[in-house]
Amino acid sequence: MPQARGHRDFFARMTEFAHILIASHDTPGARAAEGVAFELCRARGRLSHLIVVPDLWRGMMGDDWLNNASTRDVYGRYVENQLRREIQSHIDRIRPDALARGIAYEFRVMLGKPTECLIAFSREARPDLVVIGAPRPKRVLGLRSRMHTERLAGALAAPLLVI
Question: How far apart are CA 85 and CA 95, in angstroms?
Fold first, then answer.
């Protein structure tokens, strides 16, 4: 019986993909998925990067303590600018890696439910492979806007790899 091999040996035997779609949002699982996506994407390939702003942010204009329109507007601009800075820093971290490897890089920012956004973008982008990070363990703090892998597996036209 052959011995189990590490994931790098397994991936080394796989065909490199010309177009990979990755949904990532800068968590440890997403960063691991990004690394594998780079390993699997061939030179002169393409990496489509989906960044989902969960739709729960849509209602973040505050509660009763934001008691006038001016305060709500200031707070709304603050939240939007903070999200914009975080998204841009994420793009600025991934784009140079892609370009250094000879991989074309494109990104899309979508507001909505992560699973539905990934399904919609994958239908448009038509990748050879979709890569996402595994769900965050329950004991790890952070926002829980997770992908529903069971729904993705049945809805994507490309294979799904969860890292």
Answer: 15
Give yes or no for a contact between 119 and 156, defined as CB atoms under 8 angstroms apart: yes
Phi-psi domain of 62 (left: phi exceeds 0; alpha: psi -120 through 50; beta: other) = left
What is the chain's pLDDT, residue by residue, as a tens digit (163 residues)?
344 445 555 555 556 899 999 998 788 888 999 999 999 999 899 999 999 988 866 656 555 555 677 777 777 788 888 889 999 999 999 999 999 999 999 999 999 999 999 999 999 999 999 999 988 777 776 655 577 888 998 899 899 999 9
pTM above 0.85, yes or no: no
- The distance of Cα 8 from the centroid of its chain, to the nearest Å, equals 21
- Spatial distance between the Cα atoms of 102 and 87, rounded to a whole number of angstroms: 23
Amino acid at 81: N
Whether 51 contacts 107, CB under 8 Å: yes
